[in-house]
Amino acid sequence: MGRPPSFRDILGYFKDKASITKATLLSKPDSSSPHLAVLRATTHDPATPPEDKHLDRLLSLGHGSRLTAAACIEALMDRLHTTRNSSVALKCLISIHHVISNGSFILQDQLSVYPSSGGRNYLNLSNFRDESNPVAWQLSLWVRWYARVLEQMLYASRVLGTFLSQTAGGATGDETLEALSNGDLVKEIDALVGVVEEIGKVPEYAYFQENRLAGEVVRLVGDESILIQKEILGRVKETRERLGCLSFGDSVELVCVLKRLEDCKQRVLFLCSVEEKRKLVGGDVLLSLVREMKEKIGMVGEIRGEGRAVLKGRGRGSESARLFERVVRTGDSVCFPSARIETRVLSRLG
User: Fold this and answer.
1) Is 80 exceeded by the pLDDT of residue 273?
2) Rounded CA gap, 78 and 35, in Å?
3) Boundaries of each ENTH domain copy (predicted)?
């Protein structure tokens, strides 16, 4: 950051050296040491993010035994929860983010079950404070925000039943989405929008330009937001296919979720680079689809007594609703979760 090192920085440097030396001496020759890998990836240096080689070494522990992977996650969590240094805490969170995004299945699995209680306050950093100097105080805001983003990502992964990094090509396939019930589809959109909302609550934006550590956090979160918005886009497109059979309750919940997304989307786009915005297929595709969906859902009326919903825009039902009515006339009251499945079944019925 262009400032001379403080006494605290020098003290942190020697603490790192002492801890790494001790961990090295206690490690057996030619054996993996989760504690040592974590220490090297989460030093006290306030100006630089973890080095790639140290992150790679930490992630490599997920390709061994489950016991080694469990020890790695435990060491990482212990480091996070015992430090009062904002730089160390941010580097621990960056390491956790790399486990979520790039870690092996066994490493991600150990993260998902630690602690066993889980919950929304998964990382338990809502009260984190580093009051040692103004820079550390500012970074404390980033620690609390980044922890909330990762917590929401972990929660969304539990709702989806998989880590986002494991979805095919960065977007869940059509067949997987078609198999979801309407309620589960809306729940997944809600969980993913929750991540976008947390991302949009980023602290003072200009500050990261003066700190490489905060800048690395913004880069990682920006990349993640691209993936998450693609996942949301795929699910919103799927709900568009189902408008004729969404229940009144699901329709209301979906409108609320889409409104939340619309409210925070511009803030998230502001964080993304020009290149990242291009990855969003024009940048405003999702917002345009959200507005379209809100307008259409706003015309959905509950037809009481028949137990189904149709679109009432300008006196005509939607294509999904008209197809549904054709099924009802055959005496079959089943409402298919996706209009694409419905169309295929109807074609077979002739």
Assistant:
1) no
2) 10
3) 26-164
